[in-house]
Amino acid sequence: MIEFSLRVEPRLIQAVLPELGKIFAASQKKSAFTFVCPNPSDDDLVEAWEEGLAEDARSDRSALARLLGNPKFAYGRVEVETDDAEDLLRGLTELRLAIRVASLAEVPDEVLESGGLVLKERSSSERIGYFAYLILAEVQENLIAALV
User: Fold this and answer.
1) Count of CB atoms within 10 A of residue 97's CB?
2) How far apart are CA 148 and CA 132, in angstroms?
3) For residue 122, what are the CA distances in angstroms to 40, 51, 103, 114?
4) Are 33 and 95 in contact (CB under 8 A)?
């Protein structure tokens, strides 16, 4: 089991959880990733390729759902089974990309990644998206550190 605490005020986590839930639910309908089969003329390979990707996506999203559904997460506690860690990392990446598209499309990548977003100049949905994006980034960073 991998366990750690986020350096985020629980009130902030609790404020963004509804937005995370909405974006997570919407992202389940369509993947943020597109992978082209290496040999699209081979019908059997295409079918196996798509089934494999769908299964991987289900595992990634299940790991993410367990994190978001854990009552301790609202208080900044992250608990992840070691076997779920890689799935969770991929699920977090997909959710961060979905947040990027849904709430932060107008924010340049360099501003987003540097933490240089001027919050008072942004809409409330952008601010909530930004905080959600950062919280998930912290989860990813801590999870990667725990796996190394």
Assistant:
1) 15
2) 25
3) 43, 40, 11, 16
4) no
Look at residue 99 and tell me whether its pLDDT is greater than 80: yes
- Phi/psi at 57 (nearest 5 deg)? -65, -40
* List of residues 6+ apart from 111 with CB closer than 8 A: 117
The identity of residue 54, as a single letter, is: A
pLDDT at res. 80? 93
Could you tell me the residue ranges of all domains in the chain?
2-147
DSSP letter for each residue of 50-70: HHHHHHHHHHHHHHHHHHHH-
Pairing assessment for the beta strands 2-5 and 77-80 based on DSSP bridges = antiparallel
For residues 63 and 59, give the distance between their C-alpha atoms in angstroms, rounded to a whole number.
Answer: 6
For the entire predicted model, the pTM comes to 0.79
**CB 94 within 8 Å of CB 33:** yes
DSSP 8-state code for residue 73: G
Query: Tens digits of per-residue pLDDT, 119-145?
Result: 777 877 888 888 999 899 999 999 999
